[in-house]
Structures are given as C-alpha cells and as structure tokens.
Amino acid sequence: MVKFSENILLAPESEQVCYCLNITKGQIQHAIAGGADTLAKIKGATGACLAARCKEMNPRGR
Questions:
Q1: What is this structure's pTM?
Q2: Contact 59, 41 (CB under 8 A)
Q3: 18-60: per-residue pLDDT in tens?
Q4: In 3-state terms, what secondary structure has residue 6?
Q5: Which residues in 20-38 are b (16+ Cβ under 10 Å) and which e?
Q6: pLDDT at 46
Q7: How many Cα atoms within 13 Å fall on the side-chain side of residue 27?
Q8: Other CB atoms closer than 10 Å to residue 39's CB: what's the count?
Q9: What pLDDT score was predicted for residue 49?
Q10: Which residue, 7, 19, 51, 14, is CA-closest to 29?
Q11: Distance CA 35, CA 56 (A)
Q12: For 18-51, what is the HEC assignment?
C-alpha cells in the first residue's frame, strides 16, 4: 500500500503527487521556482497530469 501525507503542504519533497508519471512534490516546486507560474507551465515543465489517469492511479481516489 502506498503511504501519503494527508496534507500536501506538510509532505516531504520526495512525496509522489502525480501517480501516472511519478512526479514528486519537489519536482513541482522546482518548476515553480524556475518560473512556471501557471498550471499549464507546471505541466509542461514536469509532465504532471499528462497521462490523464490521476483519479485511477491516485491512492486518494482524486
């Protein structure tokens, strides 16, 4: 069973947030720090949410 933090703000950088493509919180934070200031730019920089299977693969079911 996959363990995850209930509150993503308190999660470590290594915590997976995109289960489709194994993108971590740290990768998303790095993209933001690098100038990605919209969801589209974050997706482009990280590849997050591009496989469209998040609800299916996320242990939170969302």
A1: 0.77
A2: no
A3: 888 889 999 999 999 999 999 999 999 998 888 777 777 776 6
A4: coil
A5: bbebbbebbeebeeeebee
A6: 94
A7: 18
A8: 10
A9: 83
A10: 14
A11: 30
A12: ECCCCEEHHHHHHHHHCCCCCHHHHHHHHCCCCC
- Beta strands 16-18 and 23-24: pairing type? antiparallel
Which of left, alpha, beta for 36 (phi over 0: left; psi -120 to 50: alpha)? beta
Q: Decide: helix, strand or coil at residue 17.
A: strand
Structure tokens at 62: 């969302």
Q: What is the sign, positive or negative, of the torsion defined by CA atoms of 8, 15, 48, 57? A: negative
